[in-house]
Each structure stands twice: as structure tokens, then as C-alpha cells.
Design goal:
The chain is of the alpha/beta class and 255 residues long. The protein has helices spanning 10-20, 39-55, 72-83, 97-107, 119-125, 154-158, 165-168, 194-199, 231-237, and strands spanning 25-30, 33-38, 63-67, 87-90, 109-115, 134-138, 151-153, 176-180, 189-193, 221-223, 241-244.
Length: 255
């Protein structure tokens, strides 16, 4: 019988990664170049984003969507939203505008976190969005140029925020992940509890090079697909070196 000594919630998973592998690297490709930081710094920024979302009025059960490439800020959002009991909703930027708007409206997304270079797609559907109240724009600088109302820079938002992860733990049981079909017109979404997302990495072969052996070898790592169920969390639990390749899937420079 296998037992765990911590809750299967996102803050507990984040705490395990921070305390067990504080100096392990996360390497990300951004428009400015290669960005590298540790699990300890990653957890600190996740707490700041979670605190900022709470200050904005995001509550348990609210939908927080992401429209972004694979990079360290997107990975932070994958932890921060469910950490406060919200529902993380990764969007597919390859959908036609009408289907993208339909997906956002169907999920009733309250906040959209988007990459600056994907702004044209978001701005084209913004007039059709019924539930979105705020936009967070991710870029390497503290300022962004957007035609969206209530748009804020990601870095400017988390800069002054606090990191009360102890308080966040109380509401984290409601953290969920909402997935729509990736390549067809969205008709319905599947909502997964954080407990299932935590167990999902266990469905992978435990003898594989991805999950089981990373804890023993600090040089092992993998490209992290932030839109895939369980993938952003799997490697963090085992202390895997994470590579976020940005708008490309190439390993060069990040692992």
C-alpha cells in the first residue's frame, strides 16, 4: 500500500519541490534570450502571482485561462491558479478566432493570462468575450502595449505582491484543470481535480527516463508542455530539471 505524507493539492506539491530540490534549475527560452532560475525562486514567484490573483478578486471556482507558449511564466500560472482554488483553463492558440471566443465564453473565464506576441489573436476576439474581466500580459519587461481594457503587465503585477502560501493552502482543495478538445470546435470541457492531476504523473511508467530517475540525476530534464494534463506538475514532484522552449520545441539552449 502506497501512502503520502502531504495533501494532494497544488500548494503541497509546490512545497515539496521547493523544499526537496531548492537549487534545481528551470530553464526557459524567452524573446530576450535564455532565462534560468531555481525551484526556490520559482515557488516564490508562484506565490506572488497567486496573491495578486486573490487581490484581484479571483476566488475558488473562478476560471483563469492561459494563452501562451511554453515558458517559465506559463509554468508559474499553471501552479498559481489552482493553488488558490481557481480552475486553470489552457487555451489553444491554433483555434480559429470564432472557436477561441466560443471556448472562453463556454468556460466563463474571468481572467486571461496571455503572451504579448499572441495579443493580436486575443484582441481580435475581445469584443465577443462575455465574462473576461481582466487580462494579464506576459513579456520580458514591466510594460506592455495592448488595446485591451483592464490589461496589466505580468511582471508589474507580481512585483509588489506578497507570498502568503500558508493562507492559500486553506482554499487549494478546490483547484482544478479545465481542458477542451484541442483541434475541434469546442462542445464541452472536462474538469479535473488537483488530486487527479497529482495522480496523473503516476500513470507514466515509473521506470521511465521522465519521472522516476530525475530525482537521482540533477542533469536529467525534459521539455515541459504547459498545456498537457499533469506534465507541468510531474517533473516538479521529482525534482526534474525543466526546460521551457518558448514558441519552439527545440531542446537546444534550454536543456
Amino acid at each position: 500500500m502506497i501512502t503520502t505524507r502531504y495533501e494532494l493539492t497544488v500548494p503541497a506539491m509546490l512545497e515539496r519541490a521547493e523544499q526537496g530540490f531548492p537549487e534545481r534549475d528551470i530553464v526557459s527560452r524567452t524573446p530576450a534570450g535564455i532565462f534560468r532560475y531555481t525551484y526556490r525562486e520559482f515557488a516564490h514567484r508562484v506565490g506572488k502571482l497567486a496573491s495578486a490573483l486573490v487581490a484581484w478578486g479571483v476566488r475558488k471556482g473562478d476560471r483563469v485561462a492561459t494563452l501562451a507558449w511554453n515558458h517559465h511564466r506559463h509554468l508559474e500560472a499553471c501552479f498559481a491558479a489552482p493553488a488558490i482554488g481557481a480552475v486553470l483553463h489552457p487555451l489553444n492558440h491554433q483555434l480559429p478566432p470564432a472557436q477561441l471566443a466560443q471556448t472562453i465564453n463556454h468556460a466563463a473565464d474571468k481572467v486571461v493570462i496571455a503572451d504579448a506576441d499572441l495579443l493580436p489573436r486575443l484582441e481580435s476576439v475581445a469584443p465577443s468575450l462575455d465574462t473576461v474581466e481582466r487580462y494579464i500580459i506576459m513579456s520580458d519587461g514591466p510594460e506592455v502595449q495592448a488595446r485591451l481594457a483592464n490589461a496589466t503587465s505580468y511582471e508589474a503585477l507580481i512585483g509588489p505582491a506578497d507570498t502568503p502560501m500558508a493562507g492559500i493552502r486553506r482554499v487549494a482543495r478546490g483547484g482544478r484543470l479545465l481542458l477542451h478538445g484541442c483541434r475541434r470546435a469546442p462542445k464541452r470541457g472536462c474538469v479535473y481535480l488537483s488530486r487527479f492531476v497529482a495522480g496523473h504523473p503516476g500513470l507514466l511508467p515509473r521506470g521511465s527516463d521522465w519521472c522516476n530517475r530525475a530525482r537521482y540525476d540533477p542533469h536529467r530534464g525534459a521539455i515541459v508542455p504547459c498545456q498537457c494534463l499533469g506534465a507541468p506538475i510531474c517533473g516538479r514532484l521529482d525534482g526534474e530539471q525543466a526546460g521551457a522552449a518558448g514558441p519552439t520545441s527545440r531542446r537546444e539552449g534550454v536543456l
